[in-house]
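Why do we care about 3D structure at all? Because function follows from shape, and shape follows, mostly, from sequence. That is the central idea of this module. The next example makes it concrete: a single protein chain, its amino acid sequence, and then its structure expressed as tokens.
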Amino acid sequence: ARMRVAVVGAGITGLTSTKCCLDEGLEPTCFEQSKDIGGLWRYTEHIEASRPSLYPSVVSNTSKEMSAFSDFPYPEDFPVFLPNARLLEYLRRYTKHFGLQKYIKFGTTVVSIRKRPDFATTGQWDVITEADGKQTSHIFDTIMVCSGNFHEPSLPLHSFPGIEKFQGQYFHSRQYKHADVFQGKHVLVVGMGNSGVDIAVEASRVATKVTMCTRRGAWVISRVFDHGYPWDMVFNTRLMSLIRNILPGPLSRGLVNYRVNQWFKHENYGLQPEKRYFLVPVLNDDLPSYILTGRITIKPGVKEFKENSVVFHNCPEEEPIDIVVFCTGYNVSFPFLEETDVKVENKHASLYKYIFPTHLQRPTLAVLGLIKPLGAIMPVTEMQARWVTRVFKGRGANRSSPPCFFFFSHLFFFSNPLRFGLSYDEVLKVDCLVYMDMLASFIGAKPSVPGLLCTDPRLALTVFFGPCSPYQYRLGGPGRWEGAREAILTQWDRTLKPTRTRVPARSSSSRPSLLTVVGFLLLLAAVVFGF
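And the structure:
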């Protein structure tokens, strides 16, 4: 019999996990508590009470070419950065193309997932689900948790002295639905993540005054990068990754910080991070101009709340406030799992490669998508799913053999806590290119630039100098896709198609840039001295 896999959630991660199960010959059942696919991206003006908007400015922060699943490019007429409706349309096409719909049970909530009594030998799980008020028990060989990390808001009111005396309104960003609530008000937004900046920008269009406070500051970058190209197609290339990783840490951070400050000098806008290293940036096109025009003011952290005002650190005067929005993130929470199955401490879980719980006797439970990459989440979770299903399949060949890689898991996780920046905000943040290369190497799907240079020089140069798009991980290995080469070579065509709607008679110069020349020399050096 085929191995039965329970997939929890039919959002982005759940859909690709279901598809990867089918690719490996496994038997998935995807449980989705709502009536449709899409998760957070299924946003409408009339928001379901149980699924409020987490991102009011519902446009993707990563470009379509960098956000695509690795064997299913976006249509060329889709915009470069996708409104939620177009991204949801893409997910529907993906679901239909790969026949995923029949494996999804909608309106079904996972109530509990528990190890079976014989878990030590079988690795199996008892799963209880509920649909239409009726509970059903199932037995599954493996579990893929794809429910995301936006269930339990983190609202540390104890960190804000005087909040109990505050007579105005306050709420967590998860409860935010529409900017009308800010009409004519003095608004304070606490926190500088993507949600906080998006809410502040929206609020400033109707509020009397909007203030944002941040203890650490933040790097802010625009979707529009060098020469108008999408930021991630310029930033996330193998050349740029090589430069960032071969330079000494302080020099690498200094160069990145210099590059980020070229759009605007963060210090002059009150945004310069306290610690001068490159944090995961905030993506917003409007914030600098809104600060310039006085629509948003940046302040340091809250010192104390009073009845109708707030006092900030290093600012003696009180600021009148009517509404406070706490954009303070989320706690890692899996209410359907036992606490001992996924140990969570200080907002992050102890997971091998950010996926497998480190202490289970059998590697039959995987948590996917519990990361925040500097780049698109979709191809990262797809790569996670490709590796996880291969691990499951390998286990199926010999269920009695111990999961030997767990022997090293604690050593990896605890001896190298800064590897992917776990110290910042205590959230799992990863360099997506380094992380995806690592997972791809586990399944034999990591592209070899030196190898391609010998067999397909044009493709090799595009892979190295161009955007590290997801299609690179379908050039070889399991799951190889015949269309990968063509998708890589035409990625800029699909990017420029929706914007180059008026082409002047004189085309731009095709002379190679200095960066390209330097990069080519680096590539040659890498080939000579070992990539």
